[in-house]
Structure formats: C-alpha cells, structure tokens
Amino acid sequence: MKNFFHLLFIILFAVFVNSCQQKVDLIVHNATVYPLGDITGKVTAFVVDEGRFVAVGGDELINNYDAKKVLDLQKLPVYPGFIDSHCHFIKLGLSLQQVDLKGTRSFEEVLNRVQDYSKNKKLKAITGRGWDQNDWKDKSLPNKSKLDSLFPDIPVALRRIDGHALLVNQKALDMAGINEKTIIKGGTIIKSNGRLTGVLVDSPISFVTSILPKPSLNEKIKALKNAEKIAFENGLTTVSVAGIDKDDIYLIDSLQKTGDLEIRVYAMISNNKENMEHFLSKGPIRTNKLNVRSFKVYADGALGSRGAALKAPYSDLKSHRGEFITPKDSLEKLAYMLSTTPFQMNTHAIGDDANRTILEAYNKALTFSNDPRWRIEHAQVIDTADISLFNRKIIPSVQPTHATSDMYWAEDRIGSSRLDGAYAYKKLLDMSGRISLGTDFPVEEVSPLLTFFAAVARQDKNLYPEGGYLSKNKLSRMEALSGMTEWGAYANFEEDQKGSIEVGKVADFIILDRDIILEKESNILKTRIVATLLNGNIVYSNRIN
C-alpha cells in the first residue's frame, strides 16, 4: 500500500508540474546561439511564442515550458536573421524575367545570349542586365552597331551590372528622342567621333526606360515572390530596399497583409517629386513587416561605368571626373528640408567628391538632430582627409563584395593613392561606431555569407588575394555579424524589434551547418543555410521539417 501511494504521488506531482508549465509554440535547445544585443554568457536555448522570443538562456529552459515543437539542434550554430541593408528586391525578381547577362566574357557572348533569349518570342522590347566590360578582354564600352543590325525594329535595352549604364539600340534611342544633339544633366550620352554609341550613363537612362513596356501587376507579384524565395534560401529575413516607388511599396504592403509575401521590408523611397509629395504628406508607415521612413537619394553614379563623382580626374580617363546626378546645391537643400521631417536621408555616394559633398551637407543639416541615423549608401571612395567627417549621426551602409569585385580594376580607375580611402570599412566603423552591411543584389550575389567572408577576409570566392585586398580594413567576425544583424536593425530604426535573439523581439533566426565565428577562414564559404525562420516559423529548410 505504501508503494502504491508513493507511485500515486509521483504521478500527481508530474501532472501538477506539467500543468504549471507555460504552453509555447517552440523550444530550441542544445544549440550554439549567438544572441548579440545585451546578452552575455553562453546561450544554448531559447523559447518562442506567438512569433517572439519569450526566454533565452541555457538548456534548463526546456523544463519550464510545454512546447508544441521542440528542436534539438545537436550543437548547430544559430544567429539572428540576416538583414541585407542595401538591395534591390523587386529588381532581383524582375531580372529573372529578362536576359541574364551576368558572367559574360565578351560582347559577342552578350549578343549570343540576347539572340537566344529572343528566339521564337513575340516581344515588344528586349531587356537584360548584368554585362560588365571589365570582365572582357576588350574592356572598352560596347557599341550599338551590331544590335542595330540584329534588332532594327524592336527596342533593346541592356543594363550594365551596376545599373548605372545602359546599352541600347538605335530603335530605343529614336523612341526616347535621343540624338547627337541631346544634352541631359546628371549623366552622360557616350559618343565616339561625334556619333552615338548607344551607351547611356545615369540620368539619360530614364528617357529610355520611360518608353519601354512596364511590368504588369502579375509580373511584379511573381517577381516579389521569386525574390523572397531566393532571400529566404540565403538566410535573409529582412531586406532594406534601396530605392522604390510608392506603387510598389503599397503592392508589398498588400501582399504582406494577405500572407502572400512574408519577408520583412525596410523601404527607402525613391526621391522623385510624386513619391516625396505623397510620403511627406502622409508620413512614415510601419507595420509588423513593412517600415517606410527614409528617402533614397543619388549623389552620383558608379565607379565601374565612370559615373562616380571624383575630386580629380579618373586615372584612366584624364578628361573626366564623373557626374553628380543630383546637383550639389540641391543635395544640401534636400538635407535641410528632410532634417525637419521624421524621414531618414540615405544617399548613394561612390566618388570622393560625392562623399565629401554629402558628409558636409549632413553635418550642417543635422546640427540640432540628436539621433538621425542618416546613411551614406556605399561610401566607396573617400578622401582620407574626409573620413573624420563621419560620426555617430552618420551610418556607413556598405557592401563588402563590392571591394572584392572591384579590386581587379579599381586602381586603374582611381590610382593607388586614392585607394587609401576606398572600401575603408574598419576606418568607417571606428568613426561611426556602427556599420551596416548589404549585398546590393542583383548587382552582386544574394549571399550574406559571401558578404561576411568579404568583410572579414577581403577575398573573393577564389580566396584571392592572399592576405586580403586592402587588408587593413578587414572587420572582425563579430563586427561583420553585427553589421548583418543588430547594426542593420539599428540603421533601420528597428533595434527594438529585431537584430538579436532577445526576449520581446521577433523570432527571426537562422541555423547554419558551420559556425562562421569559429570556423577556419578558408572554410567559411562552404557554410550552408540549414533553415531560415521568421516569427519562429520555418520559411526555408534543407534539413528540418
């Protein structure tokens, strides 16, 4: 009888304990967790309920909760969901519906791909993206003459990899009203011996795009869904979209509300007149998955297409210093105006003249702003004398793979002396206290792991060069991780919601098959995404059900 009552007590006690356990959606344990934020000490487990972290600590947490699902990760590493601080989300999806010109090794290969793409199709226009003359044996910009002979009756528009140069045929030029006498400020219509080559740099591009067929609503929806799939496969849970129009912002919002699009979006509004009037009147928008509170401004163009605004001429084109897309005085006026609004100013600046101009405009306009978090997107080539103009109010938003892509030709463009302030991520971090990292996809690959590797090793996928390119500006592994998580959230005014694995924040996290903080450097690029989770729900997995 005594044994009976003892057994009964044990059963009743177990039932009591179980009934006292808080019911939750998910427990993750036996993991190697990098929580970031304010958490110190070893973390091996956390608890998720209703899409948020409710407890973070050791494996003893498993005893305190009754979970619908328990994941034993067998020591696999877990990180906050990756944030891409600068990308072109819808453009990635739309590029899948165009001619893919990435990786072409010659202009002849470009032409072959365009011909293959257009075969047996009834097209109103041919568009493509991805060519880069720096990858060709003949590194001169292409000429439209062969396009004219192949496609005399249909407009053809082929964007360079950086998006800042466009090769078009004569049909497109005629439809856009561009001829040898056309002058357009903020860019260049490239000629040879007084004749149009078909290459347009920066502002003139809009004249051609305005006459091309616009993507349909269904094509845009397909593009967004395809881009989301690629993002989740690469561990991205938030994308900061660098330049987007209001109609596309509202499309994203509607798809998120119906559950057709899940990824979180930080939208930088393109600063055309219509967009600015609308949002300055309406004010910022913030939902659980969409944050609209910044304007994307272009100071200059890109270095690869010689559109970046430099203080001194290009080393390989002595008569040319690049162009300001937005005039200097307009940039300063815009900065003063936006400083009186809730909106952040995020300015594309590549060349040292553009960076100096923006830094001066920011510092003047932000004199009385305590926490503006204005950003310089790219911050690519900076006079070393101007780096001190960065401070805690100005965040450098950089793309580490630009350094490892450009290193093969950057010195040809700007010379060795100007490289001292180029791709200077460590110096920028020291001045600003934080740095946010992105990819600029589809200019570069959709791969935060490649971003991480380029930041810490300063090498490309072939592990070149030995020791790293401009290696004094390597970031530490924890600095790079922070730049892809908590600092990315801070740059978006979202550190209260995401960027770390802390109680109260949204349960966005990723599981990798290697620990990128401890793994041998040369093995980092062998790392694979095991799973991506948004709100504690699996949105991508190659292993976990």
TL;DR?
The chain is 30% helix and 24% strand. By secondary structure, it is of the alpha/beta class.
- The gyration radius over C-alpha positions equals 25 Å
How many helices in DSSP terms? 17
CATH class membership of the largest domain = Alpha Beta
Shape: globular
Largest sheet: 9 strands, mixed
Count of β-strands: 24
**Average pLDDT reading:** 94
Supply the CATH superfamily name of the largest domain: Metal-dependent hydrolases
Domain count: the total is: 3
Helix content: 25-40%
How much β-strand is present in the residues?
15-25%
CATH architecture group name of the largest domain: Alpha-Beta Barrel
Q: How far apart are the termini?
A: 47 Å
**CATH-assigned fold name of the largest domain:** TIM Barrel
- Would you identify the regions where 5 or more consecutive residues have pLDDT less than 50? 7-17
The class by helix and strand makeup works out as: alpha/beta
How are the secondary structure elements laid out?
Blueprint: H1 2-20, E1 22-29, E2 32-33, E3 45-49, E4 52-57, E5 65-72, E6 77-80, E7 82-87, H2 89-95, E8 99-100, H3 107-118, E9 126-131, H4 145-150, E10 156-160, E11 165-168, H5 170-176, E12 187-192, E13 195-202, H6 205-209, H7 217-233, E14 236-244, H8 246-258, E15 264-270, H9 273-282, E16 285-286, E17 290-298, H10 328-338, E18 344-349, H11 352-365, E19 374-378, E20 394-398, H12 400-406, H13 410-414, H14 425-432, E21 436-437, H15 448-457, H16 477-483, H17 486-491, E22 509-512, E23 529-534, E24 537-541
Parallel strand pairs: 1-5, 2-6, 7-14, 8-9, 9-10, 14-15, 15-17, 17-18, 18-19, 19-20, 20-21
Antiparallel strand pairs: 1-3, 3-4, 6-22, 10-11, 11-13, 12-13, 16-17, 22-23, 23-24
